[in-house]
Amino acid sequence: MEKHYEAILGAVGEDLSRDGLRDTPRRAAKAMEFLTKGYHETLEQVVGGALFDSDNDEMVIVKDIELYSLCEHHLLPIVGKVHVGYLPSGKVLGLSKVARIVEMFARRLQIQENMTRQIAEAILQVTGAKGVAVVVEAQHFCMMMRGVEKQNSWTTTSMMLGRFREDRGTRMEFLSLIGK
Asked: What are 131-177's pLDDT values in tens digits?
C-alpha cells in the first residue's frame, strides 16, 4: 500500500523527497489499515462472550455512538453518530459491544444506508432480540469538500426490525428516547 501512496503523491505533483512527505506514504498506509480494520474483524470476535442471560424485556438503548467511516465512492470521511435500541428476548449484549459492532461496520468502505442495515442485522443475529432499531445521522465529506459543497447537510438513515417495524408505539418510544 505504501508504494501506491508514493505513486498517488507523485501523480498529484508532489516531491516525495520533501521533508514533510518523506514518511507520508508509510503513515498513510498505516492510517488506511486502521481506518479499514473492520474488514479483519468478525462479529464473533467483536462480541466475544459478552452475551448474558437476562429476564429484562424492556428496551435497551445505546445512543450517540460516535461514527467515523469512509465513503466507498470517494474515500472521504463520514462522521456522525449512531443510536441503537433492541428489545431483549432472554439475552442482553454487553453495552460496549454495541459500540464495537458499530465500529466494525464503520471501519469498512461504506455507504450509510448499507451500514445502518448491517448494524441492525448484526445486533439481531447476536441477541435474538424481539426487535432492533438503528438510526444513523452523519455528515459526508464528499458532499462538504467537493461536489455540491454543502457544509451543513446531514444524512439520516434508519433500520427497524421486528417489533420496531411492526409496532408504531415501540418505534415512537425509541425515537422519543433518542430525541427524534
From this structure: 999 999 999 999 999 999 998 999 999 999 999 999 999 999 999 99
Which positions are catalytic? 71-74, 112, 140, 142
CA distance 118 to 43: 11
State which fold the 43-177 domain adopts: GTP Cyclohydrolase I, domain 2 (3.30.1130)
Give residue limits of the domains in the chain: 2-35, 43-177
**Rounded-to-integer distance, Cα 118 and Cα 125, Å:** 10
Mean pLDDT of 108-122: 98
The DSSP call for residue 72 is T
